[in-house]
Amino acid sequence: MAGGCPGTCFAVRELRAEPPFVDLRVLGGKPALLATYGRQVLAYTTTYAYLYGFSQWLQEDRGLGSSVAGLLLLPMSACAIGVTALVGRHPQIRGKLIVGGAMQIAGCAALLLLDSASPLWLPAAIGAAVGVSQGLIGLANQNALYAQAEPARMGSSAGLLRTFTYLGALIASAANATFYSHGATTGGLHDLSRLLLVIAGLLLMITLADRSLHRVGRP
């Protein structure tokens, strides 16, 4: 109840304000756009949980220095940039989302193989898989938004997409804090990975069920 009142007051204020700080009218009457925001939350919950939790595990449980842990995150960034450059000119998005969701599932499942004695190529390979999914899903959701949002509210719609990205980051931080309450142990990493598997699976299910994605990017 205490948390609901400020949220309700904020929503009422924003719906009455002209211009609003956050245009909540964007969220009304656009199921396809709401699905895009939902995919963004799910995708970036997994991405940020990996980014925050994996590097912490590399240092605390795997015993690596911060510089080595940082280097092992480079495949993620490199693959995200590379895949975006490779497929960025193709307007169809459904295939990108399906492949990106599948890569997230594969990356989360692979985290269950890690322990304190794992060879360094394995976390690097997992990072590459997560980077591919990040590049594909981030690009596809942006393209979907440009096709789904009302032209007059494009700026507000794009801003809300970023807001849902940060919401995913907040959820990821809470998940890491929960599973690493006694330190970034391998057991905690595996428990976190199981949660992320559920989230990534839900992302793929939502994508497969959204028939409106067939029309985006097609003449």
Using DSSP, what is the number of strands? 0
Distance from first to last alpha carbon:
48 Å
Radius of gyration: 19 Å
Shape: globular
Low-confidence runs (pLDDT<50, min 5 residues)?
Answer: none
Give the amount of beta strand, in percent.
under 5%
Q: What composes the largest sheet? A: none
**CATH topology label:** Growth Hormone, Chain: A
Topology pattern, helix = H, strand = E: HHHHHHH
Average pLDDT confidence is 86
Structural class: mainly alpha
Please estimate the helix content.
over 70%
**What is the number of helical segments per DSSP (H or I, 4+ residues)?**
7
CATH 4th-level superfamily: MFS general substrate transporter like domains
Q: What's the CATH architecture name?
A: Up-down Bundle
**Domain count:** 1
CATH class wording:
Mainly Alpha
Tell me what the structure shows.
The protein is mostly helical and 219 residues long. It has one domain (31-214): Growth Hormone, Chain: A (Up-down Bundle). Helices cover 74% and strands 0% of the residues. The chain contains 7 helices and no strands. The chain is globular. The model has no long low-confidence stretch (mean pLDDT 86).
